[in-house]
Amino acid sequence: MRIYDIILKKRNGFALTKDEINYFVHEYTKGNIPDYQAASLLMAIYFQTMNKEETANLTEAMMNSGDVLDLSRIHGIKVDKHSTGGVGDTTTLIVAPLVASCNVPVAKMSGRGLGHTGGTIDKLESIKGFHVELTNEQFIENVNQHKIAVIGQSANLAPADKKLYALRDVTATVDNLSLIASSIMSKKLAAGSNAIILDVKVGSGAFMKDLDSGIALAQEMVDIGHHMGRETVAILTSMEQPLGYAIGNSLEIEEAIQTLHGNGPEDLTELSTTIASYMVLLAKEAVDIDAARERVMKQLQSGEALNKFREFIEAQGGDPSVTIDASLLPKAAYTMEVLAPEDGFIQSIKTDDIGVAALVLGAGRENKDSQIDLAAGIIMKRKVGDHILKGEPYATLYTNKKDMMKKAQDIILNAISLTNVPVEKPKLIKAIVMKDHVTIM
Fold first, then answer.
1. What pLDDT is recorded for position 63?
2. Backbone angles phi, psi at 434, to 5 degrees
3. 231-238 and 195-202: which strand pairing?
4. In whole angstroms, what is the distance from residue 356 CA to residue 71 CA?
5. Which domain holds residue 17?
6. Cα separation, 193 vs 387, whole angstroms
7. Looking at the structure, do residues 171 and 106 belong to the same domain, yes or no?
8. Which residues are catalytic?
């Protein structure tokens, strides 16, 4: 078999066989196929596209290029969740203990953030003593005993995807549905869960800018999941503005705790409970989605989900008293309010720009070697559709970089548009995509 023949075949619009796809992924991962030939095949795939069988085979090949977790010793049906990104996406911190308190095992492998803020792992490390370096034995034992554990992502999880994504990033072949879907799903499938809930973001702060493209991506990923024998559901959600109010690591931990106390932002609570309800349903802990939601809300309102969060923190070496004393979280040396320049209704928020402002303050990483500031970030004070008076705060900035505050302020002022007429608040949950049907909300 020759990579030249595979490139030529796809360039001419023919479907690749499973053996051809396996050969490409295996040999490229090993370094036996040069970047220039791999880039040629990616460009051929970009223009000629892949059918569903090819996409599933590419996903499986990337999944099998490295470690595949065996979670069979964990009791019960394991359900994983994945978000396609966004600004202020704190859901895992709420969903994981909420679902675990419903007797659903949560065996979560998460990465560190590269971008606006840290990843789930960075956020959890805002809690004094919390550690993610568990052995496989400790990981499995924690889930069996506490129903929840979160560890850092293995460096050898789907290494083919890591290598191919780096090449796609510099060859203008990122935005292809098959390549996006296989990239996301190869890692989720390698993480070993029995079922998967996907939170697919749509809007100005997301990769998929409109509902139609979001549904297309969701359907692609749901099809891959079912092809691989994993029940998969996608929830399409708005990223026209930051989710919740907090953007930044310790700030998001505090907001997650507030939400588990029952005092969180309306949108963050709505999304977290919806994701949790579908996870409970897929774990067969409820007969239908209404029963699942009823159970989830009971666990939230009773405080059982918050108790599970405390138990989880303590099991991984952290100080659980952070759930009642937010002053134990890292605090920034400097704060500043960003004030509205005039009266009006908030017409739009450039979500990506708010993320950039958080990055400027130190909340994220520009590259993998950047140092993250766990105390830095932004608390938004208004949402799209809210009315604001001149001099009232759009947001509060938190940082240890005093010299960056003016830059972050200017970014936020330019990111928010006002109008003098009322604005309808955007709908958070836009659609549910399942194997056999799509429900537009």
1. 95
2. -120, 180
3. parallel
4. 37
5. 3-48
6. 44
7. yes
8. 82, 161, 168, 183, 187
Nearest to 81 by CA among 203, 295, 232: 232
The CA R_g of the chain, rounded to the nearest whole Å, is 22
Task: Give the sign of the dihedral formed by CA 309, CA 380, CA 113, CA 209.
Answer: positive
Q: Are 154 and 133 found together in one domain?
A: yes
Encode pLDDT of 364-384 as tens digits: 877 666 788 999 999 999 999
pLDDT at residue 122 in the model: 87
Other beta carbons less than 10 A from residue 340's beta carbon: 19
User: What single-letter amino acid sits at 303?
Assistant: G
DSSP 287-333: SSHHHHHHHHHHHHHHTHHHHHHHHHHHHTT--GGGGT-GGGS---S
d(CA 57, CA 227): 9
C-alpha dihedral, 360 to 361 to 362 to 364, nearest 10°: -60
Bridge partners (DSSP) of residue 233 are: 197
How many structural domains comprise the chain?
A: 3
Q: Please list, residue by residue across 341-378, b when 16 or more beta carbons sit within 10 angstroms of its beta carbon and e when fewer do.
A: eeebbbebbbbbbbbbbbbbbbbbbeeeeeebbbbbbb
Arithmetic mean of pLDDT over the chain: 92
CATH code for the domain of 16: 1.20.970.10
Higher pLDDT, 58 or 108: 58
